[in-house]
Amino acid sequence: MNTTADQALAPGAAAPGRIVLLTTSHRVAPGLLSWPAWQALRAADRVLCADGAHPQTPYLREAGVAVAEASPTAEELVDACAGGRTVVVVATGEGEPALTDGLARLAGSGRVAMPELELLPASYDLPGARLLDLVQVMDRIRAECPWSSRQTHHGLAKYAIEEAYELVEAIEDGDRDELREELGDVLLQVVFHARIAEEDPEAPFSVDDVAGGIVAKLIHRHPHVFGDETAATPEDVKEHWLRTKAEEKQRASVTDGVPLGQPGLALAAKLASRVRTAGLKVPFPEGEGIGYDLLTLAAHAESQGVDPEAALRAAARTYRDAIKQTEHP
User: Which single residue of 53, 80, 166, 167 has CA 20 to 30 Å from 12?
Assistant: First the structure.
């Protein structure tokens, strides 16, 4: 044990006291601690931290809390609590497993009068906090990985399409574990493209700009949630959405914004949906061949609320199963 720790853990009386293991989240700004945590820190006889560079220590000292840099063993920590004293240990990022394991062994031995042990979370992750980890990991990968550091928007485009299809497959298969994984892969594409966009010399933007943009869009397109309008049915919601979207885009045609590179059945269904929603009467183009037949079928499926792409995939899977059954009866 080092000299600082020896000073911090002066021997005392034999009566057991209290050990508080204070944990914090690196995803929350340092110094933003819960009120019970501040109470425990101010009332403690000793506050110890093994990491002299712990991000919380400058803020604790600024608040008048003396923090000693020390790495006590379980026995030393128990001795430091003698006489009814309270020692708060500010946990490092690893959570002090060696110390907690040692305390568990002492408590299990039955030979030591153990202090009261308390695990006190001083800060909690908010929902979505792990997204901060993803952004940090992506920053490092972009800087240090020979492959990732050379990628461009164009080079990654095909992966976005592949991951989207794999997500759809997981949804249709009903595989929850696969669904969670594929959602992560799709999310990675968003964060990866946003990280690349930060480096653009003329029009850079970050993942915060991406998130800020979609937040503003969602709020604007949900006046029944964030404003004074009302929507009692899903149809009302769709009407609000289409109206606000039309006001935002100021498009000259209902076909504007429809990506022509999407699969043919999906493209035909999307165009038919735009026509139907706008109340237009547009006859199908006359022509011969399977393409025109498929166009008509896709538009008919959309009018019945059926996704033609999903319907064809389902039929194709049934066909695949029949092929396998023929191959291996």
Answer: 53
- Beta bridge partners, 19, equal 87, 117
**Residue-wise burial string across 45-83, b where 16 or more C-beta atoms lie within 10 A, e elsewhere:** bbbbbbeeebebbeebeeeebebbbbbbbbebbbbbbbe
Q: What is the DSSP letter of 89?
A: E
Closest CA to 85 of 18, 145, 143, 133: 18
- Give the end-to-end CA distance of the chain in Å, rounded to a whole number: 72
Tens digit of pLDDT for each residue in 18-75?
A: 999 999 998 888 999 999 999 999 999 999 999 989 999 999 999 999 999 999 999 9
Scored b (16 or more CB within 10 A) or e, 11-28 reads: eeeeebbbbbbbbbbebb
Q: Are 16 and 82 a contacting pair, CB within 8 Å?
A: yes
Burial of residue 145 (number of CB atoms within 10 Å: 0-12, 13-18, 19+): exposed
CA pair distance 237, 229, nearest whole angstrom: 10
Answer for the pair 224, 236: CB distance below 8 angstroms, yes or no. yes
DSSP codes, 273-290: HHHHHHT---PPPP--SH
In whole angstroms, what is the distance from residue 179 CA to residue 173 CA?
Answer: 9
Report the alpha-carbon distance of residue 264 to residue 261 in Å, rounded: 8
Residue 48's SS3 state is strand
Residue 94 to residue 216: CA distance in whole angstroms? 38
State residue 14's pLDDT score: 55
Nearest to 91 by CA among 177, 131, 33, 135: 33
Strand partners, 117: 19
| Residue appearing with tokens 């006359």 | 286
CA distance linking residue 186 with residue 283, whole number of Å: 38
pLDDT at 6 > cutoff 80? no
Q: Which residue has the tokens 């021997």?
A: 11
